Amino acid sequence: MTMNSQGRSTAPADATTISDIHTISGSRGLLQREDLIFETGCVNKTGVDLPKPKGTKSRLGGVMRKRSTELPGLSEPETVRHYVRLSQKNYAIDLGLFPLGSCTMKHNPRLNEKVARMPGFSDIHPLQPQATVQGALELIDQLATWLKTLTGMPAVAMSPKAGAHGEFCGMMAIRGALMARGEIETRTRVLVPASAHGTNPATAVQCGFKVDEIKADKRGRVDMEDFKAKLEDSSDIAGIMLTNPNTCGLFETDICEIAELIHEAGGYFYCDGANFNAIVGRVRPGDLGIDAMHINLHKTFSTPHGGGGPGAGPTVLSEALADYAPVPFVVKDEDVYSLVEETEGEGEEAFGRLCAFHGQMGMFTRALAYMLSHGADGLKQAAEDAVLNANYIQTRLKTVMSPAFDGYCMHEALFSDAFTGGDIDTLDISKALIDEGYHPMTMYFPLVVHGAMLIEPTETESKAELDRFCDALTGIAERAAQGDESLKGAPYLAPMRRLDETQAARKPVLRWTPPEPESMAAE
Amino acid sequence: MRYLPLTPEDRKSMLQTIGAKSVDDFYADVPEAARLGGKVEGLPDHQGELAAERHMAALAGKNRTASEGRFFVGCGAYKHHVPASVDHIIQRSEFLTTYTPYQPEIAQGTLQTLFEFQSQVAALTAMDVANASMYDGSTACAEAALMACRVTRRKRVVLSGGLHPHYAAATRTVCEAQGIEVVQLPPAVDDELALKDAVTDKTACVIGQSPNVFGTVTDLSPVSEAAHADGALLVSVFTETVSLGMVTPPGEMGADIAVGEGQSIGNALNFGGPYVGLFATNQKHVRSMPGRLCGETVDADGQRGFVLTLSTREQHIRRDKATSNICTNAGLCTLAFTAHMTLLGDKGLTQLAELNHEAACALADALEGVDGVEILTPRFFNEFAFRVPGNAEAVLAQLDELGVIGGVRASRLFPGKKMDDVIITCATECTTEDDIKAYADALREVL
């Protein structure tokens, strides 16, 4: 037994349980209570030392701010401590397995962070002369070459800022092609499977199309009968948006036939590339007959998710759509790279511009470093390991949970809530995983499976880590099958208990406001 | 391969557990014709960290950074000093490697940060509420146009002649797809107020910018009055957030929606992205907003906490009836913004704004002293347009040879609009007196 210098035992004296302990500070050991900056900072404090302004005569012409921003400031030590304390209330990949299906939470290599911060990439302006940014343009061109080669597609638009933005880019290219054919008024219907990400139907509508939902069959794939029926009158078909591998974690077995039929019907094939990570190096989407596909650099190519962004969604395009890519794009003439920022003339084919400047350079640098590190061999191995890990989880859990479909999965394993007893549901199982030290899986998605639980381990987990996770989930699943009511209170061990989302939505408080003075509050 | 933990033995034993012969079994659903036999051809194999870093460093080395030499480029992206602690904070694993905070019990770090971000943006813009960010200023502008059409049930938007042309183009792209008419007023250094004559009872919104792309600051109050009289909204745009420390903010001009680029606070130039789009509006329009919102609530023990809220507006719930298709936003860039803004506080922001303004005034004074130069921007914050005798592109190229990156030629942003002799230039707190003198001397030599 360890003794301190006064000879007292350091062993705990009793066995008080966690819930009995209430602290005066509100902190709990390493987990610090942390108020809002608006409660701790003050308007007269600042954490920067700037030179004193000289008092030059203003050239604002009186267009001046009337009221102070009242923004609180904090010194540097207080600021750092504030955010470090907050950070400790977050789960993260660097802490443990983060099995969010469809989100691809894989390790973010730190080399990529280092290279993105090289001043030659981070400290260059999007509008400085092109002769001074040849390395940046070359990088965009190299990344484009990797993306085109891996997908087997002839063109890529690099400027989309996220997956949904890439979907918008691809669907706008389809729109451009239909316009060139003089059929934009008539071809307005886009087929979208019921299992699709919500961004797909939202994007189709944003591009001016109507959504027509296709059913899933019993195998979790596109119901070919339903699909063919939708094509019977194909005069208004603009195209299909299909995720492959799909959101059930399955390869669409009939994808080549789907491509043929949609093309015969006069439509285009948009493939949602959110799950490209399962097939990189094994399948080139271009060989499947697709016309457009976005690639989430923050999924397949591991740029960090950052708590919800930034992402990047370069979009590869087929010959049929290549001319309808947005500006800007990089061209190479001899050894000189240049950006085409405007298309000339009235009959321009590009649909225009998606955003200011040239895309998510900070993500491009990270993604290219990731690709160079992996190489063609490593990318293929990564895809195979991701699929192997998912199948391992599916196998280990299939006796205690309910696999949604028979057979092998791709990079993610999907279960329904059929195995649960009583009124225990997917949410309870997810929250119980938090107590076990894991981030929950994706819940209630895809919509085609009841109480869906979508588990994507990624290739950057070891077998030992997968085993620990499966052990934990097995224990929870057994309790759920027995209808263990205590699951409904989980999590018990997180920084917070379950939060009241209904209250948040009913009377939204979306910003800090100063508390009412006590005298008024008392009235 | 250093990023892959599975050993060959692990793979073998896992395949055994699964009952598969090889990983090929998992890919059996892939149509025969689409299966690749070996690797994808035409790409190199894996390489070590050193080799990959060298490759990247070689590319980085071919670019000239804004910190080398005299640098005066603005127009929507700005060279500012970012405190060292900001980058330290955003590299915390718990922020960098986490997801959208869908599980609030283990995401209070991100959620509280977003709540603080929303509060800061609302205060800066003098609006009631802000969302948890958009991709960047230009896409925020496009989303504002769509929102105005939803709110007013009208289908016409009017863009000022001083709106950043990339913002105008991004807005046109999304509007035209939805059959929304976009009226573009002719480019003008100082005519944001022309918007008031363009409003009719068919107009959903007018979109004006202050400071505008030529640097001109304008009190848009007369525009909001005219818009409101016809039942239209005012969307007020800014690309330089630092200006809000001094210049009249959207909320003080009667704006209904304020959108802007937040890059200046906490974020590097990054050759154009990732940046952070700011989006704010008034209380009555909250439920028409695009993007994520973070709200306050309590947990089962009654403790204050934060959650994503009002998600019935969003694509993952509403699908084809969502207010926007946006999913990923600018998470980590919002953290950088919030941390930097916390370091500044009102005091630091005001001082930073004054320093920027004074640098630009000193630059204008110096350039005005060069024969042939005519300053075009009548009222400015930290950037302005000026006319040179001759061709701006040639002048900038010659300045470049003398070590001065002098700004953006207006013809790059407005091709074919007869602005070949106009340069838009910018100064910030990073601009020194020496830089300004060097610019004026070089310009004198060139002209």
Question: How do you describe this structure in short?
Answer:
The complex is a heterodimer of chains A (523) and B (447). Chain A is an alpha/beta fold. Helices cover 32% and strands 10% of the residues of chain A.
Q: Which features does this protein show?
A:
heterodimer, A: 523 residues, alpha/beta, Aspartate Aminotransferase, domain 2, Aspartate Aminotransferase, domain 1, 32% helix, globular, B: 447 residues, 7-stranded mixed sheet, 4-stranded antiparallel sheet, 14 helices, 37% helix
Could you walk me through the main structural features you see in this protein, from its secondary elements to its overall organization?
The complex is a heterodimer of chains A (523) and B (447). With 523 residues, chain A is α/β, with parallel strands linked by helices. Chain A folds into 3 domains: 25-38 and 73-85, no CATH class; 113-371, Type I PLP-dependent aspartate aminotransferase-like (Major domain) (Aspartate Aminotransferase, domain 2, 3-Layer(aba) Sandwich), CATH 3.40.640.10; 377-496, Aspartate Aminotransferase, domain 1. Chain A is built from 15 helices and 13 strands. In chain A, the strands form 3 sheets. Chain A has a 7-stranded mixed sheet with strand order 1-7-6-5-4-2-3, sandwiched between helices. A 4-stranded antiparallel sheet of chain A has the order 10-11-13-12. In chain A, helix 9 (255-264) links the parallel strand 4 (237-243) and strand 5. The mean pLDDT of chain A is 94. Chain B has 447 residues and is of the alpha/beta class. Chain B folds into 2 domains: 70-81 and 345-446, Aspartate Aminotransferase, domain 1; 84-340, Aspartate Aminotransferase, domain 2, CATH 3.40.640. Chain B contains 14 helices and 15 strands. In chain B, 66% of the residues are buried. The mean pLDDT of chain B is 97. Chains A and B meet through helix 2, helix 3, helix 4, helix 5 and helix 6 of A and helix 1, helix 2, helix 3, helix 4 and helix 5 of B.
